[in-house]
Write a structure and sequence with these properties.
Helices cover 29% and strands 19% of the residues. By secondary structure, it is an alpha/beta fold. It has one domain: Rossmann fold. The strands form two sheets. It has a five-stranded parallel beta sheet, sandwiched between helices. β4, α3 and β5 form a beta-alpha-beta unit. α2 runs parallel beside α3. The chain is globular and about 30 Å long.
């Protein structure tokens, strides 16, 4: 079985031996990809679009927070930890403390850092693309643990 993985430099864009899901399975599901590395933003955006998600992007935590606060309907956030200004961990805390928390996944090439809020999953780069989609599906309540 072929799998795809992502790190800061490579991504195999071959589809694994599973079927691409139907767009109707994720109608109007918006993912906000937050990373200051536009290469990674482009790769993650492509992956999510291939899976039928609507994708928005932000280069840092402050921009992401502003998009969410000013009417940006977002179902899930996928963010790097190391960002200029407001970090991914700080963004996660702010989103988890809301009256209606926004599900979030943190990613990084660094080992698991201290301070990640409870119930915020973490994937270390490189990671398998199928694993990324599975974690996002869990955050959205589409896959049981």
């Amino acid at each position: 079985m072929r799998s795809r993985s992502i790190d800061t430099h490579t991504l195999e864009l071959r589809r694994p031996n599973r079927q691409k899901r139907k767009a109707s399975a994720i109608v109007a599901t918006r993912v906000l990809v937050v990373d200051d590395d536009w290469y990674i933003v482009g790769l993650l955006s492509q992956i999510f679009r291939e899976e039928g998600f609507l994708v928005e992007t932000a280069p840092d935590g402050s921009t992401a927070l502003a998009r969410i606060d000013h009417g940006g309907s977002v179902d899930v956030v996928v963010s790097d930890i190391m960002l200029p200004g407001l970090t991914g961990i700080e963004l996660a805390r702010l989103l988890q403390d809301r009256e209606q928390p926004v599900p979030m996944l943190l990613i990084s090439a660094l080992p698991v850092p201290d301070g990640i809020p409870a119930h915020v999953p973490f994937l270390r780069k490189p990671f398998d693309v199928d694993q990324l989609i599975e974690v996002v599906d869990r955050l959205l309540g589409r896959v049981s643990d």
